[in-house]
Task: structure prediction
Amino acid sequence: MDLLAHVIFSIAVLTLARGVRFIPPPPLITDEPYFDSSMLVNQTAHVGRQAELHCRVHSIGNRMVSWIRGRDLRILTVGRYTYTTDLRYEALHQNGTNQWTLRIRSAQPRDQGTYECQVSTKPVKTFTTYLRVLEPRGEILGAPDLYVQKGSMINLTCVLQDLPEPPLYVRWYHSNLFYSNRVSYRGKGRCYRKTFQEEYP
Result:
């Protein structure tokens, strides 16, 4: 039994003998870098909006943090420097903090995929996160063919999904011509429904 274990055992025996509950000592502080356990494995961004991937590393010392794109293993950033000709990518880090951020301006569908946060240890420590890029889409319920009787009411419902916020307006077109802006609206989460009603002559 080494000295530290012997001391802990002696304290445990002494406190138990006195009827006091033994509380184990806190874990030793390590010099090895490790990733924060609260980091997100899956992240979401919307097309045309800004995406930020965060990496938090404790006990980093003098090691460097890099961001690698998974689909082509391209090095995007090292420390606070960016190593890509795509100007949408940017490395962010404030001195004295343990967070390194990869910012992607105007996210595009091609940006979807895995990204690796790497720490320059031997061997390299890696944390992988997946970025999902949502593109707004709409669907008319019952499309593409709807049948109604002559003189009856037309009731069309368009379901919009994966929008970053509720739309200001939705326009209906008939044969590529603007037809009506009279709609009812209700929404839940990222799904919005627009209903158009009109008398069919």
User: Anything to note?
Assistant: Residues 3-22, 187-192, 196-201 have pLDDT under 50 and may be disordered. The CA atoms of residues 112 and 132 lie 5 Å apart. The longest strand covers residues 125-134. The chain has one helix and 16 strands.
